[in-house]
Amino acid sequence: MSDFKTLNKITVGDMVLHYWIDENKHLEWTIYPIAMAKKVCKPDFQKNTLSLVQSKLVHDAYDKNFSNGLTMFNSQTSREMVFVDQRESHDVNDLMVTTTLKDQHQNLYDQKILYDSKMKRLKIWTEFTNKTSETEKLEYLTSFVLNSLSPFYGRQLTDNLQLIRLRSKWAMEGRVEQRPIEDYDLEMSWKSSGLGIETFGQNGTMPVRKFFPIIGLRDTKNDVTWLAELEGKASWRLNAARVDDRLVIFGGLPDSDDGKWFKYIDSGETYRTPYAYITVGQGSLLKVSSRLQRKAKHKTLPIIYNEWGTTWGHPSAELVHESVQLLEKHMIDTYVIDAGWYKSKTKDFNDSIGDWQVDEKQFPQGFTPVVKDIHDHQMKAGIWFEFEGLGKDSQKYNDTNSLVKRDNWPVTTIKRRFLDMTDEHVKKYLDKR
């Protein structure tokens, strides 16, 4: 068993940050409500210390727990990390906690936690600094790791922990999934030789495809819920895992095996992961999840009317005029003209996406009088663009110098190719349009 001792406990608002260190200077941490502090138990039945930063360098070994190809969690890089120091800094509203680890190659890993007293969440990220004389290739680096769940038992129970996820698909976003961890094979095994893990996420720039970048764990016996949310601007992974006694949740970018992510870091350079946000609280999921979000600045949101479900890709000046006369009687703030307002050789609005030239048949006098018509009926005017896309009849569809490519071939779907938004020529083209 690992011989854990408390390294530090830091109270922030109604939460406690608790750091445990073992006899080999390996470090874990967890958080819990201050109201539950007296119930916290040291992880005396845990055989493995799972570092509060998870990483893998290309020249280090994978773990041995039948997990190769599933995850780079608990690699040699992570297993060899040891505690260096911990620093706290304060200003008027914020507390920053920096916990520094080093690996066997003397590279440094800073776990950064920012607590804003106006919020009830922690902002967390990891910074890797290459301290070797050579370029290092990172194959994996987490934004956050949250250990020792649940910390309220000397030995973990069964049927008391639930995994929380938000499922999603196009036009059906946000279905809560809350199921016992045993449904994911995350209960304890008779021997800690195989990693139990539930991994989910997505590749690319659709951050809520299949799942939202949120994970939670609920201790039903103690009415405590932990939640973590990723910044989620591109590819991401979230995980719940168990090697032996206590669960761990972790996430951030995918690894090189799973999501083809890697990063070369030159000697002396520092790389920062995307941000994550975590919190813990008691009460309903709705109550605890509200701690992750900033309060809305305005009590009312604008009401937007989008004409897509009226014209199905065939808007016109005449139809806009008919609609705004009816909508003026209601509390509509903005009228949006959707797909099909541009010239097309066919009746399919998909075919000419990308040229963005107003269709003179449907809008004989252009957009100027149409916009005025909308304004005259006490609404703002909006217009639909998917400015990165190109239909097959678009002038730029075959302009390969302007396109996103993979293996030197344009990325192509049945109805689209895509502009390379990093290209200066493309930026000028879109500015003009």
Description of the structure:
By secondary structure, the chain is mostly beta strands. It has 2 domains: 5-292, Beta-galactosidase, Chain A, domain 5 (Distorted Sandwich), CATH 2.70.98.60; 304-432, Alpha-Beta Barrel (TIM Barrel), CATH 3.20.20. Helix content is 11%, strand content 35%. The chain has helices at residues 76-79, 256-259, 285-289, 308-311, 317-327, 368-376, 424-432, and strands spanning 5-12, 15-21, 27-33, 55-57, 82-90, 94-102, 108-116, 122-129, 136-149, 161-167, 175-180, 196-202, 214-219, 224-230, 236-242, 247-252, 263-265, 270-272, 276-282, 304-306, 334-337, 380-383, 389-390, 405-406, 409-410, 417-418. A hairpin with a 5-residue loop joins strand 2 (15-21) and strand 3. It is globular. The N and C termini lie far apart (65 Å). 36% of the residues are buried. The model has no long low-confidence stretch (mean pLDDT 94).
